[in-house]
Amino acid sequence: MTVYSGSCHCGAVRFKVEADLDHVRVCDCSICRQRGALLHRVEEKALELLTPLEDLTTYQFNTKQATDYFCPCCGILPFRRPRTAPHLWSVNVRCLEGVDLEALPVERVHGSRLS
């Protein structure tokens, strides 16, 4: 496991995550297609928020079971609570420092098939 530092584009949202980045997830649902995030799921205890969660903006759609957290300044999504595993965090790997995105295997997820 490696500890990564992460942030949104403007730096207002900061966090650390402990993860074994052996893959990223790319979802084909309507919002994920447009957002383009590369996600990796981690346990609750693996994410350390350095910015209070209350300082972020949230977005929920469709069933309102997933919660997306955004920086209110730059609009970047650093992490989310996924619908299919709300006890986990999905971290946007694009927000992590020192990660070679090209070296990570991609797992395709078919969120568009959820009702």
Describe the largest sheet: 5 strands, antiparallel
Q: Return Rg in Å.
A: 13 Å
- Report how far the terminal alpha carbons are from each other: 34 Å
Helix content: under 10%
> What is the tally of beta strands?
10
CATH architecture: Beta Complex
Total domain count: 1
The average pLDDT value, as a whole number, equals: 94
Tell me the β content: 35-45%
Number of helices: 1
CATH topology: Metal Binding Protein, Guanine Nucleotide Exchange Factor, Chain A
CATH class: Mainly Beta
Structural class determined from secondary elements: mainly beta
- Stretches with pLDDT under 50, minimum 5 residues: none
| Morphology call | globular
- Quaternary state of this entry equals single chain
SSE topology string: EEEHEEEEEEE
Characterization of this structure:
This protein has one helix and ten strands. With 115 residues, it is mainly β. The chain has one domain: Beta Complex (Metal Binding Protein, Guanine Nucleotide Exchange Factor, Chain A), CATH 2.170.150.70. The chain starts with a strand and ends in a 6-residue tail after the last strand.
Task: Tag the structure with descriptive keywords.
single chain, 115 residues, mainly beta, Metal Binding Protein, Guanine Nucleotide Exchange Factor, Chain A, 5-stranded antiparallel beta sheet, 3-stranded antiparallel beta sheet, 1 helix, 10 strands, 37% strand
